[in-house]
Amino acid sequence: MGKLTNGEIYIRNWTEFGVALASLIATLLQIATIFRMRAWNGYILLICSMCIFQILYDINFLLGVAPGYSACLTWNFLDVLGGLSVSFWTNCISIVIMVTVVKIKSFNVFQHYWKFCLYAVLFPFIIAILSLFVIAP
């Protein structure tokens, strides 16, 4: 693949910006809907935890479109942390759904929330720290 022209780079940057902005708006609407429902339980807590990291990832992605920002270590760290955390929170939600469907009973999310946090926040944080050593000069 050859070098991109200025016009192609311009289109790519605005496309990336539009997709990241759409994702951010969708996540904010999801959180607004949750707060308007005024229903709070462990399942909603898992979704809100995932949304927090999705917002972090989306804002970081939006800033990454700005020239020079994507080259810095902060962007790379937040990119890895946000992306992996969202994936790991999604795994936690799917585990809760699987247990609920298979056992046909409620799952006490509050009792196991600290384990989910260790899995979905600590592991991505460690991986993000390790990624800094790989890309740092």
Describe what this molecule looks like in 3D:
The chain is mostly helical and 137 residues long. The protein is globular, with a radius of gyration of 18 Å. The model has no long low-confidence stretch (mean pLDDT 87). Helix 1 (6-37) packs antiparallel against helix 2 (42-64). It contains four helices and no strands.
Layout of strands and helices, then pairs:
Layout: H1 6-37, H2 42-64, H3 73-103, H4 109-135
Q: What labels would you give this structure?
A:
single chain; 137 residues; globular
The portion of residues forming beta strands comes to under 5%
- Sheet of most strands: none
Average predicted local confidence, pLDDT:
87
Radius of gyration from the alpha-carbon trace, in angstroms: 18 Å
Low-confidence stretches: none
End-to-end Cα distance: 27 Å
Number of helices: 4
Q: Write the element-wise H/E pattern from the N-terminal end onward.
A: HHHH
- The shape is globular
**Helix/strand/pairing class, anyone?**
mainly alpha
Helix content class: over 70%
- How many β-strand runs? 0
Précis, in short:
The chain has 137 residues and is mainly alpha-helical.
